[in-house]
Amino acid sequence: MAENILEMREIVKQFPGVLANDHVTFKVEKGEVHTLLGENGAGKSTLMNILYGLYSPTSGEVWLHGKKVDIHSPKVAIENGIGMVHQHFMLIPALSVIENVVLGMSENKQVLDLEGASKALVELAEKYNMKIDPHEMVENLTVGEQQRIEILKALYRGADLLILDEPTAVLTPQEVEELFKIINKLTGEGHTVIFISHKLNEVMNISNRVTVLRGGKSCETVMKEDTDKHQLAKLMVGREIDLDRVLEEPKLGDVVLEMKDVECMGDKGVLALKGFNLTLRKGEILGIAGVDGNGQDEMLDVMTGLRKVTKGSIKICGADATNAKPRDILERGVAHIPADRHKRGMIKDMSIKENLMLINYYKPPFAKGKILDWKAIEEVSERMVKDFNVKTPTIETAGGSLSGGNQQKMVLARELDRDPEFLIAAHPVRGLDIGATEYVHERLVEERAKGAGILLVSTELEEVMTLSDRIAVIYEGEIMGVVDAEEATVSELGLMMAGSKRHEAVKGE
Ligand SMILES: Nc1ncnc2c1ncn2[C@@H]1O[C@H](COP(=O)(O)OP(=O)(O)OP(=O)(O)O)[C@@H](O)[C@H]1O
Ligand SMILES: [Mg+2]
């Protein structure tokens, strides 16, 4: 057996009201990809934050290379060769790549040698087939690029044990492939990787071993060869999970969204949508498939009033909504699960109950005139938290202290509870565990049955194909074609996602 480079023994972490880690034991061997698997709130990020010196454990020991260590800060973790890429990236947008990389590094020199550092970073990147511009500002990078910089930053600082906390949650399938190549290269060179993901296909692809956490406890470690997706799901949730879904025939109603010849500019001053047409009716789920960055964000922006349309028109729930105000659009019975929950979905410092009321607080029964009825707010909040299984000690807890997946559940609870006529769901299950994913998918299908028109934006082809009635493929700001989901094939959609128009894609098969 290979050497255990890491042993976390009997780790306990008690937060106010939450026992996040309950005597967790976790052993990692040199050179392996070891996946930590578990439901939202199972304690994965907490355990890794302890290893990285961000939290101190209530009790328990950490052993590295056979020696007990006291990792009381990230600095000590880095000195011990531990690097971490967080679930929510921590780069500073207003600084350049190289500034982010050298920031906070302890150097004896008075003046930083940025040029020397840039050169070294580019060389390191090339070794892993990554192309980077060290002088680019981080705010101009895609999430995939930011993540590669986070990895490089850790390697640059000498990490040989790399923690990747849900690195694939925001990546496109192509980017995931690239990341896996990097991971394989790293472990081939003797680095060790701790990987966290809710996507079982990925886990079965990249891991050597998997440790399952359940309710803060370590429950089992299995070899990849000795397990499969079903067993992992069951270990994690404690019951069978069914991710396949058969939709009943849609009962189509009125048109809730009609976009005609829409044009808008992107942030970089080029056309982001052009000649964009889309129609959605009540009672159906229309999936938008496409590689991230092809106009999905701008499409969502214009239909929710957050970006100006320069040409064309948008009608929502029967009335003109071209360049309408966001609140006016929401008032028409539109609910929006935003792609970026931190920017648009929630306010981290506000309590859960306040976050749950963000949209409806000024209406009865929550407000009587200018007075808020906290009792009514609390009752409804308690119910939503229960319905959506948001793991939290109380509704007074700050939204930002929830685990990643539970933050997403909080946003979903608020939006779905509004009984929308038109529901915009952007990556609704991003970061959710499989049990929660199953629940959200059920809720979307329920909303459809109740007559809502649902626009589902997702980069996960599998999700789009199982949930949608029709699938529209977006490429460079245009719809390449709309296909009946029952007839759609992965290869046809894939071709359209790469820019073939519908008839060409079909012919090419
Ligand atoms: N800073 C904190 N203060 C209070 N409670 C916290 C804090 N960080 C985490 N928790 C709680 O500890 C529990 C475990 O959270 P953790 O983030 O480790 O879960 P996770 O397994 O990473 O989940 P996910 O898959 O959703 O990211 C959760 O119930 C969470 O609310
Ligand atoms: Mg987490």
How many domains, as an integer? 3
Assign the CATH topology of the largest domain: Rossmann fold
Backbone structural class = alpha/beta
Number of helical regions: 18
CATH class of the largest domain: Alpha Beta
Judging from the principal axes of the Cα atoms, what is the shape?
Answer: globular
In total, how many beta strands? 22
- End-to-end separation in angstroms reads 48 Å
β-sheet strand percentage: 25-35%
- Low-confidence residue ranges: none
Which cofactors or ions or other ligands sit in this model?
adenosine-5'-triphosphate, magnesium ion
Rg result: 24 Å
CATH architecture title of the largest domain: 3-Layer(aba) Sandwich
Strand order within the widest beta sheet: 6-7-8-3-9-10
The proportion of residues forming helix, as a percent range, comes to: 25-40%
**Main beta sheet, described?**
6 strands, mixed
The overall average pLDDT, rounded, is 90
CATH superfamily of the largest domain: P-loop containing nucleotide triphosphate hydrolases
What does the model show?
- The protein is of the alpha/beta class and 509 residues long.
- The chain folds into three domains: 4-237, P-loop containing nucleotide triphosphate hydrolases (Rossmann fold, 3-Layer(aba) Sandwich), CATH 3.40.50; 251-333 and 420-509, P-loop containing nucleotide triphosphate hydrolases (Rossmann fold); 345-419, no CATH class.
- The chain contains 18 helices and 22 strands.
- The protein has a six-stranded mixed sheet, sandwiched between helices. It has a six-stranded mixed sheet with strand order 16-19-20-13-21-22.
- Strand 11 (255-265) and strand 12 (271-281) form a beta hairpin.
- The model has no long low-confidence stretch (mean pLDDT 90).
